[in-house]
Amino acid sequence: MFLTFVLNFPSNIKPVEIENVELIPKIGNKIEDIYFYDQTGKRFSFSELTKDSIPILLIPVYYTCEVVCNNTLLYTIEQLKKLNDLKIGKDYKLIAFSFDYNNTILDATNKFKYCKVIGGNDENCKFLVSDSLNVEKLLSGIGFKLKRLKNGEIVHPVSIIVLTPSGKISRYLLGLSFLGKDIRLAIWEAQLEKIESITDIGKSAILFCFHYDPKGGKYAFNFAKIAGIIGILTLASIFAYIFLTPTKKEKIQAINKEEH
After folding, report:
1. How far is CA 170 from CA 93, 196, 202, 248, in A?
2. pTM of the shown model
3. Which of 42, 52, 61, 89 is surrounded by the most beta carbons within 10 Å?
4. Does residue 19 sit in helix, strand or coil?
5. Is the per-residue pLDDT at 167 higher than 90?
């Protein structure tokens, strides 16, 4: 059964699957001399991606992960679709890369369909693959520590990373809780070469992607507790949004009141 776990686990409930799996922020680190192939088969240095001097949304995934990685791509694309004031190619580039060096150019080509949803092309929206040396160099550069299982699955953190036009890491958007407005702000800040505070990242939860077998029994009860907490928080957020967000009428009345 495929599930995701959230937060930094206390040692007494931390599944063995995510031991030594971490995201260590490398804020301000510059990504450059690493080589990849894109979905067209073109080979290039990562630093070439910065030639257009616009921010980069970097998405670390692996293309044969059919649940969380696909959801990460879908969720990010859906949020970007809502940003009518930001255009791919003009305001940002979208770059996904596979940290599974067994993934091929064909795998990357099959994922390019995501680019078309937001009007991307082969220049401003790329899906990358490479060999183990270059993949590990990029993982080290962004602070991703993974666990490669014997069955071929990869346990990994879930985050998209925003790079400045010069290729420096500006911000991490963790898990699948960020919204379009968060991406917009991150892009705006990256345009100014602004670097996020590491203390801000430390306050956020980290999502991990891995398989969990409830038949093992060891983590079943603890997972139920965690899933319940997540469910309650999600419902609370929805109700807060519905009942606390001002209606259009209320906003107009507030504006009129200020004007008088």
Report:
1. 14, 6, 15, 34
2. 0.73
3. 61
4. coil
5. yes
Helix, strand or coil for residue 43? Answer: strand
CATH topology of domain 2-211: Glutaredoxin (3.40.30)
pLDDT category, 223, cuts 50, 70, 90? very low
Average pLDDT, stretch 112-140? 94
Token pair recorded at residue 4: 């995701």
Phi and psi for 80 in degrees, rounded to 5?
-65, -35
Q: Where are the beta strands (DSSP E) in the chain?
A: 2-6, 22-23, 35-37, 43-45, 56-61, 93-98, 125-128, 144-145, 147-148, 154-163, 169-174, 207-211
Domain map (residue ranges) of the chain? 2-211, 215-259
Per-residue burial over 63-79, b = 16 or more CB atoms within 10 Å of its CB, e = otherwise:
bebeebbebbbebbbeb
Q: Quick: pLDDT tens for 4-14.
A: 443 444 445 55
Q: Give the residue carrying structure tokens 């949304």.
A: 57
Give the chain's mean pLDDT.
78
Tokens of 146: 């993974």
Cα–Cα distance measured from residue 176 to residue 56, given in angstroms and rounded to the nearest whole number: 18
Burial of 185 per CB tally in 10 Å (0-12, 13-18, 19+): middle
Asked if 212 contacts 223 with a C-beta cutoff of 8 angstroms, the reply is: yes
Residue with tokens 């879908």: 74
Report how far residue 63's alpha carbon sits from residue 133's, in angstroms, rounded to the nearest whole number: 18
Residue pair 87/119 in contact (Cβ under 8 Å)? The answer is yes
d(CA 51, CA 114) in angstroms, rounded, equals 23
Burial classification of residue 134, based on how many CB atoms lie within 10 Å of its CB (0-12 exposed, 13-18 middle, 19 or more buried): buried
Where does residue 152 fall: left (phi above 0), alpha (psi -120 to 50 degrees), or beta otherwise?
left
